[in-house]
Amino acid sequence: MAKKITMQQIADHLGVSKFVVSKALSGKGGVNEMTKERVIQAASQLGYFSQKNAYMRTVKTERPLPKTGGKQSVIVLMPNIRFQTKDSLYWGKILEGISSSLEDMGLGMVIISEQSVDNFVNILNPDGIMGLIGVGQISTPLLLEVHRMGLPIVLVDMEDPLIPSDTIFVNNMDAMARLTNHLIGIGHSRLQFIGNDRFSRSFRDRHIGFKITLDEHGLNPGVQEGLVLQLQELEKGDVESEIRSWVSRKLKTKSMPTALVCANDSIAVTALRVLNELGVKVPAEVSVTGFDNIEDSPQGGSRLTTVHVPKEALGRRAVQKLLERIERSREPMEKILLAGDIVYRDSTAAAPGNQTSAE
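Given the sequence above, the corresponding structure tokens read:
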């Protein structure tokens, strides 16, 4: 039987006092953010969080959640960041899947978009709450509060290395590999990934799927700037100027790739608009692909070849996994991958002739 990890062991590991560790793990003030991060990191590495009831506590609240007619409820946490809103063509569909599944089972749902840890604690009443489904990017401190309460957690399209939880993703790597293989199969050898692999786990996996496929075909002799456009303004949601500057530079140097493989549909739609404004014909001169299938192609423009992410199914599977976790709490955590399907439309075509491999 594994030996229990204590706060004192964490303190000894870091060379700090047990009091500091206790403060950091309890969510109380008095510890700076850097020290708190070090404590959380060490606790995770030593296996402290994986222990049953390692640091559960009961939170007293002044404002309970709205009642749901006596039904047990599930919290859906989706902080309003990175365009994660109920009106989103992507995140909103995931919420619909969660909502319809819970409704079919006679369970209630409470959506919380709170980003502040202190405010979150004040509005959260664990009584009657079965667990939490997190959608999209959520900060570690927020997830830590939920884990501290002992509530089971399922994360959709997101994972946190410090918080043990089940996760649900589309198989980003495999789907992107199949999409890239398709482009290579119709003659493209000068391909460009547009996104930022530090933006999210999904973006990173899509980039990996792209790069691995190039490697398999001998199209990527090493890490080269020319194969990836790392957008720096994704957090702000304003990437059009970056893409326009890059395309203009490529046209001037006559080094334009024949295929742009975009990390999601939003980036791809922006790329289509820029190419059209600069007089580049899609797909005759450049093919463009997206990812997500949010059905938001520009008016009168090329319909986007993309990967269909089963968004509602992600939400439904998250509910199913949460109920499974409640029933079998000691089972190993799972990372569940749903398949994505390629949707072929008219933004892609065979590569124009006489093209050489990417620089």
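The two ends are 55 Å apart (CA to CA). Try to locate this feature in the token string yourself.
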